[in-house]
Amino acid sequence: MVHTLLLNKKVILASSSPRRKQIFKMLGLKVLHKPAEIDENIDIKNPSKHVMTLAAEKASQIAKVMDADCVVVGADTIVFYEKKILVKPDNRFQAADYLTHLSGKSHYVYTGISICHQRKCFTDYERTLVTFKTLTAQEICEYIETAEPDDKAGAYGIQGYGSQFIIKINGCYFNVMGFPVNKFYQLLQKVIT
Amino acid sequence: MVHTLLLNKKVILASSSPRRKQIFKMLGLKVLHKPAEIDENIDIKNPSKHVMTLAAEKASQIAKVMDADCVVVGADTIVFYEKKILVKPDNRFQAADYLTHLSGKSHYVYTGISICHQRKCFTDYERTLVTFKTLTAQEICEYIETAEPDDKAGAYGIQGYGSQFIIKINGCYFNVMGFPVNKFYQLLQKVIT
After folding, report:
1. Which of A28, A55, A116, A118 has the lowest tally of Cβ within 10 angstroms?
2. What is the CATH number of the domain that holds B131?
3. Torsions phi, psi for B35 (to 5 deg)
4. Which of A4, A143, A173 is the closest to B169 by Cβ?
5. Per-residue pLDDT tens over the stretch B68-123
6. Domain containing residue A7
7. Residues of A in contact with B26 (CB under 8 A)
């Protein structure tokens, strides 16, 4: 299990996301938080390449300044709908626009994860299909008022008020939350040998 | 949204499940907890009928002794695998047996929900397909040692250490956690008119 593989290891999460912190806590892990500072405005239109590039940049930036025995984890999440990558909304008008597009449709969520250890980095990604109910204008307004969409890719959080809008998912739930747990466990087994 | 529909309503959750409490908190709801005391050993082999019967019994038992304007919510969750209903394991040997069966396979999780309000009860259910990775004997032992399987239907919790064993789900995540949020919202719209 993850906590056994990481026993006596110093684990660093190169992210400031409260959702990712919550997932690491759920896995029984004590981690250090050291958010990477990178330019997330990259011109990569392929969604899996986009998230893997950013996850790898985050992890490697922090790994460079840490002891080689540390396990540094980076991640990046986007929403992909009709060939467009949706990141965090700039403002509430854009959040309303995102939600209007996602309403009554299915979209993909991609998360890239990267683990650096002993000067080597391993990177992979996960993809989940998410189906939204049809949202009324009132629901969109009420949801934006909760402030939950502000800091979320695609302007929604599956683990909060947004949960009531999601009819079903196909794939990994934790990927939609921002960190694909089973994929992380698989990758970790390759890294810690 | 759920919190708007329930504004100024006294909401009672007829369950002691910490996962359900957590979901209600996530939806921004203040609820009273008043667990129903019913015999869960019923002889209904059909999984949807099984969970709907128990959810309705829980909700109606509490609704009977409360003011008619209260909104009383009952729920019941089971795991269904190879035509067998798996409830909470009796002991750790049974937990190991359940996990051995679920390993490397897909199973269904069913949750029944029932809402009583103004002396009327509405009941429905949700079903989600969950796919487990192949578990090693070591993983099963380590997982049982965490004590997480003890009080969970099917001997696992998707929202804890168990998350790392789940490759994918098809359907509602919160249903697997024990309370299908979107289904609850749909049912609530019928109840509160």
Report:
1. A118
2. 3.90.950.10
3. -60, 135
4. A173
5. 999 999 999 999 999 999 999 999 999 999 999 999 999 999 999 999 999 999 99
6. 2-191
7. 159-161, 163
